[in-house]
Amino acid sequence: MNDFIKFTGPADILAFIPHTLGEAPKESFVAVTMQGNKLGATLRVDAPFGLEPVAFAQTLVSYLTADVAATGTILVIYTDENTAPNQRPYSEHVQALRVELETAGMPLKDAWLVTSELWRNYLCEYTSCCPDKPLDAITTSNGNAAMIYRGSNVTGFTPPAPFTGEAGARETIAAHKPDGWPEDLEASRATWAEVLDNPKTLTTQTAQELAGALQHPTIRDYLMTDIITNAPDQFTSVMLGVFPIRPDWARVDTAQEVAFELMKATPEGQRAPMLCLIGWLEWLKGKSSFAARYFKLALEDVAEYRLAELLAELVNRGLLADCVRDPKKSYDRQLSR
């Protein structure tokens, strides 16, 4: 859905952030770029406890500059550290960040502090002018209601489904790993397309066949790119989210759901391809924090799994998928203040 949601105050924006991240942040700095009067990209990083202010600020701004259309920035600090009245936790880091944002041409427009009990304007000097406000002012805001009405739900990180498959599944899946011949590739792609078009066709046998197909690197890559039906032919472009038009995000959601179902039939040691697939799709949606967790799980499942290492590097460098930067193609709704 690409029509705008009108935000009229800070509570609306604070309600939006957990929806776009998929969970309520804790001990975090969350920066939201502004594109004129519209909200742009959302970036969450861990609170800079013990980190040098200027280096932290430069790193964070280097991530934000990926939004080339940004004209300003909003900052939200989620913490329970030193949050007494008139106190500003991480004040040196915020000041360094203001300087770096100004230099980058995306100056800090506003900032808020959110604790486990309240929220308030971070930049306001006097509590009499900017009093503490209850958290329910966020959850009962029009912005939160609008997001829920449009189907958004703050569910948090979804862990991998536990293995509930048959004894001997590991050997069966290994036996289904194709040799890589053209006919193997086409058969796997046909099965994958059928399941994405109608997930009810996913049987135990089909799940094992697809889990086996995903063990082959070349076939895995084709199955991942086949999720985006209107993508260009170049594999690298697809993996970086470079699409000519808006993807079918409902199909993307279906692919993630199918991947979770596949893991129920797939034991540990064979799950890395599915975890990479899920993480990559989260990254395309702009949810880098979730993506990083799935890539980490993939590396725990299969040490030095190359695709997980490469995708994790994209996140570690703060790179955004190309589609995330374009409101006409991105998964997130277009939002304005």
Could you list the spans in which at least 5 consecutive residues all have pLDDT below 50?
Answer: 333-337
Question: How is the main sheet built?
Answer: 6 strands, mixed
**What portion of residues belong to β-strands?**
5-15%
For the terminal residues, how far apart are their CA atoms? 18 Å
What strand line-up does the widest sheet have? 3-2-4-5-6-7
Mean pLDDT: 89
Radius of gyration: 22 Å
Helical run tally = 15
Q: Which secondary-structure class do the elements indicate?
A: alpha/beta
Number of domains: 2
Q: H/E series, N to C?
A: EHEEHEHEEEHHHHHHHHHHHHE
Relative helix content? 40-55%
The total beta strand count reads 8
Shape: elongated
Protein name: DUF4192 family protein
Pfam families: DUF4192
InterPro entries: DUF4192
Keywords: Plasmid
What does this structure look like?
There is one protein chain. Helix content is 46%, strand content 12%. The protein has 337 residues and is of the alpha/beta class. The chain folds into two domains: 5-149, 3-Layer(aba) Sandwich (Cytidine Deaminase, domain 2); 169-332, no CATH class. It has a six-stranded mixed sheet, sandwiched between helices. A two-stranded parallel ribbon has the order 1-8. It is elongated, with a radius of gyration of 22 Å.
Task: Offer a quick outline of the entry.
The protein is α/β, with parallel strands linked by helices and 337 residues long.
Q: How is the secondary structure organized here?
A:
Elements: E1 5-6, H1 10-21, E2 28-35, E3 38-46, H2 53-64, E4 72-78, H3 91-103, E5 108-114, E6 118-121, E7 133-134, H4 136-139, H5 142-149, H6 169-175, H7 182-197, H8 204-213, H9 217-225, H10 235-239, H11 249-264, H12 272-284, H13 288-301, H14 306-316, H15 322-325, E8 335-336
Parallel strand pairs: 1-8, 4-5
Antiparallel strand pairs: 2-3, 2-4, 5-6, 6-7
Helix pairs in contact: 1-5, 2-3, 6-8, 7-8, 11-12, 12-13, 12-14, 13-14
Keywords: Plasmid
InterPro entries: DUF4192
Protein name: DUF4192 family protein
